[in-house]
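task queued by scheduler; priority normal; single chain, no ligands, no partner chains; default sampling; output format set to structure tokens
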Amino acid sequence: MVGRDVSPRGGRPWRVRAAALGGLFLLVAIACSADAGAGSDGASPSSVSASPVDATGTSSTSPTGEPEGIFKLDHLIFIVQENRSFDHYFGTFPDADGFPMRSGKIDVCVPDPVLGHCSRPYHEHGVIDAKGGPHNRQATRTDVNHGKMSGFIRALGSSQTFCVDRTAPNCAGMVGPKLQPDVMSYHDRREIPNYWTYARRFVLQDHMFAPSDSWTLPSHLFLVSGWSASCSDADDPMSCVSNVDLRGPGEYHPYGAPPVYAWTDVTWLLKQDGVSWAYYVGNGTCIDPPCPDLPDGSLKTPSSKNPLPGFTDIYETHQLSQIQTHGDYLQAAKNGALPSVSWLVPDNHHSEHPQGAGSISDGQAYVTKMINAAMRGPDWESTAIFVTWDDWGGFYDSVPPVKVDENGYGIRVPGLVISPYAKKGFVDHRTLSFDAYLKLIEDRFLGGQRLDPKTDGRPDSRPDVRENVPQLGDLTNSFDFTQSPRPPLILDPRP
């Protein structure tokens, strides 16, 4: 494959110089040809661990010189799956804030304008949820219904996409036993046993809210930057305004187009402090079209789950080669070469998106394989793995989102913490969102520096510093750093 400069604006700050592109072209060639799940010969970034200094600049080592607290964690791994609400996966999990219960039964009934009465949640035994529901800002407001959490069926509207006629032949197997729409379905340990095992053996977070009341792309933008916006000038970080819809021309970044996200993401800060990172995507992903035909297009990760190529500061800091493949991750984990910060997002086949190319079993197998790789590798004893889902996918949830600013939070999603220092069998009830991930990265590796326009050296027009909102809990509550490191828990990806 031949690389090319896709910039129509020669000489702008984000433009990649030819000398810096060689490694990227090799990366893309590997990404477009590697087999899913296979190892890669691509180089993984070496781990760079910041000095053990806390947010106040105080040393965080014991008198013997051993790291303490979060400074025992040299590797933070964030795995982000797709489109499941908390109640949809963990609504019946013991001791969690799940479905409201009465006399041992789920006490929920959501108005159903199609059936003319309310519909109750039902257990879905299958592993393919074919429909789900709309998941954008308008759908969120309908679902939440002023805190009543009663609009999930009404949000489906009149579109046959969501089986408004639930007796139609093409809707067979996509509705409940009493013709409930599948947004009222839920799963438990019978369909997702590994996720439940991680929750029982490590930490389940039952108040993890999506970072905004919208869909996949805004959530992934918040994941790496603490904001979702549209910018009138891709070269001017002060030209951006909040936007969690991002559906209009020039508001989102497709592969091969010039960058459109002008505000600052956390990789800017990581670069300044020499902290290693990588963003791992499907082995069939090609970020620089035209791309060769692949035998299975489902092995690529779409740009909505891989937004970093759309940020101008990635080009300013020459870090595009840090976007790597799942194969690169597996090799780094095996070799003890994990970067300090890793983000992992699935390809289309291993995503748990309703109407996607795979099943929830395929998604669980992918997540398990990535966790197993970290556990088997030499970096395990200094690693924390966080698993979450980017938005609720339209599925019912019973807890109203917390309002923090004009952009969120969104509806609850599951959250898991897996680490040698994670508390055992602990349900963390603190209010969390993806902003807590950024806060942990910044506290562990950046001395507490925030994505704050006043102090980060690259001012933008974000309305607030999301890591500092008072409603946000602290991820350290999920850990016990005084305990002996817990051994790996290797699970069968296909139980």
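post-processing summary
- The chain has two domains: 18-86+191-478, 99-186.
- Residues 432 and 472 are 6 Å apart (CA to CA).
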